[in-house]
Known about the structure:
Layout: H1 2-9, H2 11-42, H3 45-56, H4 62-66, H5 68-71, H6 74-88, H7 101-129, H8 135-185, H9 217-224, H10 228-247, H11 249-256, H12 263-307, H13 313-341, H14 347-372, H15 378-397, H16 403-407, H17 411-414
Amino acid sequence: xxxxxxVLHDRNARLFLTAVTVSGFGTSALWLVSGxxxxxxxxxxxxxxxxxLAMWAPTLAGPLLGALADRVPRKPLLIGGSLLPxxxxxVLFAVDSPDRVWLVLTVLCVYGAAGVVHDAAESALxxxxxxxxxxxGFNGLRMAVTEGMKLVAPLAGAGLYALQGxxxxxxxDAITFLLAALLYAGLRVRQSxxxxxxxxxxxxxxxxxxxxxxxxxxxxxxxxxxxxxxxxLAGGTTMLFAGLNGALIYAVIxxxxxxxxxxxxxxxxxxxxxxxxxxxxxxxxxxxGERRFAAYGIALTAVAAGLRAIPSDPxxxxxxxAIGAGLPCVLIAALTAVQRETPDALLGRAVATAHTLVYxxxxxxxxxxxxxxxxxxxxxxxxxxxxxxxxxxxxLFQRPASASRIASRSPSDANPA
Length: 417
């Protein structure tokens, strides 16, 4: 736990984590309440589900939106990325009838786009503001506080919604973003020139101006990198299976003989597991390395998902906690590796691209799982899912490509034109 305390004693890391905690509380509250609000106004489950889609859809444009974090100074971009939602959320005060639900969906879509830019700028800025030896611990603590807010904030948001309605929750979220902006303003970071020009190629003289690195450079960097590609692909596959697994939750509850409200207990156990692994991920990453840390986490998650076929409460709760502990491992490992292995000029695009490749499959998995659970019994489906998921960990246990291959690359290879 020594390195965990070292992260907390780092001024920049402490400000980042406090800002993430504050803004994450408001985001988690709005995430739950927006669907409830739309459902109450329209009575439509489909429109309520669109709230989640509106927030997630901008992730598909991650490589494009992430380019802003490489072409605009990152600290002002981070502050602006907090002030924009704070200024936009009061628009929701006007939503008081079904014919104004479009305002909710529009605000959530812009909110999601700002979040993509914000996450890219934050991850890129962290890589330069926090010591490299603390990055794994920082990312683990960030995961811990994010998951911790998911345990507390939705209940608080639901309570505030019952008292003040949707506008009250929107105001709370706006205030949390204002506080986050103030915290980001206190960061002490070295501002590098955004999107520096690339080194001259063999056909370009030293005096000839270079082109800016294109939007797709982050994607090419991840795909060509022998360390990043397997981690990001494993993360995407894991989130695909996580979507499938998540779609089975109510079938699992039916098998246990409980009402749908029992999902709260399972989600709480999962959240507790995620908080726990976030606290120990720094030491675990140093001991195991990114690949093995991710592989062990995937293996734990796969076994737990498969054992959910057992129709008994203790295994169900234990499996939820194990899934919560195992699932974040590959996400923490992939983000930490991207931050360490990516040149500063590409970091915003690389982070946003990694988020797109990792999290988009989750939506596909949810859709596929929703269809499969209507056709196949949950127990054999969970068992098969566990076996398939376990296979995802196998490539990460294999020895990675030689580091000398990376070291021998020219600067233009690391920062492609």
